[in-house]
Amino acid sequence: MNAKPDALRTIKKLKMAYLSIIIVSWNTKEYLLSCLKSVFEEEAGGWEVIVVDNGSRDGSGDEVKKAFPLVHLIQNEKNRGFACAVNQGLQKASGRYLLLLNPDTRITKGAIERLISFMDAHPKAGIAGAQLLNSDGSKQNSISNFPSLATELLNKSLLRWLFPKDFPGKERNYLEAIEVDSVIGACMMVRREAIERVGLLDEDYFLFLEETDWCYRMKRAGWEIYHVPQAEVCHFQGKSAEKDKKRARVEYHSSRYHFLKKNRGNFQWFLLLVGGFIRLGIELTTLTVACLFTFFTIKRWRQKLSIYAYLMGWHLRLCPQKMGLRNNG
């Protein structure tokens, strides 16, 4: 579901700011407040900050109102999904550039300014993504290839090791910005002109891969996508998804099936469905045997086994939406 013309006209009519920062939050109050604190410590003239609270039940909205009165707060009654919530923020935003920022991030000094400077210097760049860091300073994967049968059925780390030029990742130390397929959406800056050209996020994605689909559409429209390693952002990965890992994994699988069906065609989608089911069956069987041999004493293995079993059940029930995060927030 791409943007309607009325929605894009709404974006154009608003008074322009230099940068709009859009943060979508779902029950991540402490991380959200920490993220906002880091943003306002870096805030420069012409920035606006928009928080879309996706039906949180942890008091996030009230805390944001008290601690950060300058924030434009949108409060949804239920979890409408990441793409839908971002689109709400985009329609309210007035910035020349729009920064999508996860609530479980912390901005490091100068990171946003580096992204702005890069976008200013590269007018063909539709999107620029930051280098995401773990809390210990080690690198996270901040680059993503467009999903294909290879990326979804083979080991991604192995692909990055064997074919580093085709599958860039954290294994290599990039000193300069590089053009890539896609960037991870935890911190990505988007040019308004590019949004007006390709539309808003596809709301058929509830969580995961919506930014990858956006990058794919922008590439097809002639825009360039860059990873900017000089802009570093701490990312306390997946805090919303961690609250219900089983349903979150269902959403990931649902999103990758949607991406392939939409962008690669029914044949590749079918091959992924069959191949993914076979791979899941092998992983489930292997982990079951491992747990039996260790008498289910290893907690991490037990948790993974539970997730794999849930995913297998979801596939056997023909992938119903109700087993994911939709209508469960």
Features:
45% helix, Spore Coat Polysaccharide Biosynthesis Protein SpsA, Chain A, 2 domains, 9-stranded mixed sheet, alpha/beta, 329 residues, two-stranded antiparallel sheet
Structure in words:
The structure is a single chain. With 329 residues, this protein is α/β, with parallel strands linked by helices. The chain has 2 domains: 5-239, Spore Coat Polysaccharide Biosynthesis Protein SpsA, Chain A (Alpha-Beta Complex); 242-323, no CATH class. Helices cover 45% and strands 19% of the residues. It contains 12 helices and 11 strands. The chain has helices spanning 5-13, 29-42, 60-67, 82-92, 111-121, 149-153, 156-162, 192-198, 210-220, 245-263, 266-293, 299-316; strands spanning 17-25, 47-54, 72-76, 95-101, 105-107, 125-133, 143-144, 178-179, 182-183, 187-191, 224-235. Strands 1, 2, 3, 4, 5, 6, 8, 10 and 11 form a 9-stranded mixed β-sheet that branches. Strands 7-9 form a two-stranded antiparallel sheet. Strand 1 (17-25), helix 2 (29-42) and strand 2 (47-54) form a beta-alpha-beta unit. The protein is globular and about 60 Å long.
Q: What proportion of the residues is helical, as a percent range?
A: 40-55%
What's the total helix number?
12
Beta fraction: 15-25%
**Overall number of structural domains:** 2
Average pLDDT taken over every residue: 91
Question: Are there runs of 5+ residues with pLDDT below 50, and where?
Answer: 8-15
